[in-house]
């Protein structure tokens, strides 16, 4: 459920990268998530919550999850709602998601990286 398609090239790349990374960072959780250090615990939880396919980005298809995971314009990062019951309508979630992409997507590649998410969280004061 994690990795999708594009097997070989990606695998080769990952392996090559892994060699480089394990060379200079022989510690940590052994995950592929470099850059996690950049996020506070709560913000990271929200990022992971929305990042359904487990890659390094929140893509446009995942924007509604970002909203469902409690990310709001003008609110501090880190609060995942306990219940999903008090969610805006799906149309509203979609609208807010697009708005969040607008705000966060600094390099305009239509997806939100962890760094962009961190920048957003910092600007929200948390
Ligand atoms: Ca993703
Ligand atoms: Ca981006």
TrEMBL record:
Q: Which InterPro entries match?
A: EF-hand-dom_pair, EF_Hand_1_Ca_BS
Which keywords does UniProt give here? Signal
Q: Which organism is it from?
A: Marinobacter zhejiangensis
Question: Which residue spans adopt a coiled-coil conformation according to this UniProt entry?
Answer: none
Q: Where is the signal peptide?
A: 1-25
> Could you identify this protein by its name?
EF hand
């Amino acid at each position: 459920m994690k990795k999708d398609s594009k097997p070989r090239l990606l695998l080769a790349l990952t392996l090559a990268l892994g060699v480089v990374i394990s060379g200079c960072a022989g510690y940590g959780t052994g995950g592929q998530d470099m850059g996690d250090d950049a996020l506070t615990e709560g913000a990271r939880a929200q990022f992971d919550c929305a990042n359904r396919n487990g890659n390094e980005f929140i893509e446009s298809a995942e924007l509604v999850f970002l909203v469902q995971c409690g990310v709001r314009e003008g609110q501090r990062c880190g609060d995942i709602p306990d219940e999903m019951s008090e969610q805006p309508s799906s149309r509203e979630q979609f609208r807010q998601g697009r708005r969040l992409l607008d705000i966060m997507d600094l390099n305009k590649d239509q997806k939100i990286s962890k760094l962009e998410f961190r920048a957003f969280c910092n600007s929200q004061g948390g």
